[in-house]
Each structure stands twice: as C-alpha cells, then as structure tokens.
Design goal:
Elements lengths: L1 H41 L6 E4 L10 E4 L7 E3 L13 E7 L7 H14 E12 L1 H6 L6 H13 L9 H11 L9 H10 L3 E6 L21 H7 E7 L2
C-alpha cells in the first residue's frame, strides 16, 4: 500500500511538472512570435538600434530586448544564445549593466553575436561595472570612495561599525544582483577586440561622439546618478 501511494504521488508530481513545462513552452513560444513580428516591422526603420538587457526601460526608436520582458515594447532575447537576427541588421547596439550577469564565456559569445548583427561601421556601446573601481574600495580612502561605501552600507543594510566598510561592500558587490563576471577595462577591451571590433574608446556615462548613443544610460535611476557614474565604465567600438 505504501509503495502504491508513493507511486501515485510520483505520477502526480510528474504530471504537474509536465504541465508546468508545457505552459512555459507556450509562454516562450508566444514571446518569440511577438518578438519576430515586431522585428519584421522594425526593419522598416533607419537607423536601427538593438538594446540588450532593457529590463523595464525602453529606448525610443530602438529594438528593446530582455530575457524577462516585463513591459510593452520590450521583446524576449536570451543574449547567451545566437541572436535571431540576420547579419548586419543594426546600426547601433547598446547594453548597460547586463554583460556582468553572465559568465565570461557567454559574454564572449554575446560580443561575437553583436559583431555579426552590426552593419559595417556600426557602433556598439557597453556599460558595465569597473572591477578596478570595486577593488579600489579596499585601498582608496578618497572622499568619493568613502561616500560610495557609506551609501552602499546603508542601501544594502551591511554590517556597520566596528566593521570596516570596504570588505562588506566588495563582498556584497560580487554576490548581489546575480553578478557572474566583473570586467576590468583591459579584459573588456580584449574581449571586444577578440570579437572583431576596432577603434575602441572609453567614454563617460551619457557621453558619446554619436548622437544616437548620447544620454542612454539609465542605471543611475535605479539608485542615483553619482553612484552609477562612480562604479561604471563605458566602452564604444566599431564593427569593421
């Protein structure tokens, strides 16, 4: 009797799991269909920009994408997989505080896909936390660093005095938000060059020589602008 009950419970769990997987598949299929229809219509626009990791923030006249689209006008894209777009589809690509959420190997594939779907002379703009700034918290005692650490301790309710701030903030940064790999400037540049990009230039948040890439960063709206400017590095590069 006991084994029969255990068997029935196993069957129930199997059916429950199968139903869940079915509805997940239906949901994903719907998201893909919606994205493909929107992209077909978007092809009539020029210039075209791909926004990767939009979350709930849409850029006007851009094709906004996210792994978990939660807003109208944002379409499903798993940036760790080959992009569902033809070669040379976009003039610009922008991604902010996204690449650090996937492993480095996936980040390299992401950059290669960006290179593939960019038109010749197209521009990519990547904004991401700067590993140097994060580790610099351990040795830099300047007023900007102190202000950032004080903000982080309060924001994330980290242990306070008598504990030093820097170790708390650095550990939290690596563990929070699902971070997978934090780049330093040299590593990000090498990764972009390996993907085939040239003419790399480091920019400040919101600043670009290209009108279409100016004032795009919005991560500061999540917390505050000066925090985003403190921890973020931005690189632009050109597709040959």
């Amino acid at each position: 009797m006991h084994s029969m009950k255990a068997g029935l419970e196993c069957v129930r769990e199997g059916v429950k799991h199968a139903r869940l997987r079915y509805w997940q598949f239906r949901h994903l299929s719907g998201l893909i269909h919606e994205r493909d229809q929107a992209f077909a219509a978007y092809l009539a626009r020029s210039p075209r920009g791909l926004h990767i990791g939009a979350e709930g923030y849409t850029l006007e006249n851009w094709f906004n994408t996210d792994l978990q689209p939660a807003k109208e006008g944002v379409y499903y894209l798993d940036a760790t997989q080959p992009f569902p777009f033809p070669q040379h589809s976009f003039d610009f690509i922008f991604s902010e505080h996204m690449i650090e959420h996937i492993p480095m190997a996936a980040g390299l594939r992401l950059l290669s896909e960006c290179r593939r779907v960019l038109k010749p002379s197209g521009i990519i703009r990547i904004a991401t936390p700067d590993l140097r700034k994060v580790f610099g918290l351990l040795v830099d005692n300047g007023p900007a660093t102190e202000a950032y650490m004080r903000w982080a301790v309060e924001q994330f309710q980290l242990p306070q005095d008598p504990f030093p701030k820097a170790p708390q903030v650095v550990n939290n940064f690596f563990r929070a938000w699902g971070h997978q790999f934090i780049y330093d400037p040299e590593t990000l540049q090498k990764a972009m060059q390996q993907a085939g990009f040239r003419d790399l230039i480091q920019q400040r948040v919101g600043v670009s020589l290209h009108t279409s890439l100016q004032r795009l960063e919005h991560h500061g709206q999540t917390f505050c602008e000066w925090v985003n400017e403190f921890e973020t590095m931005v690189f632009e590069a050109t597709a040959p």
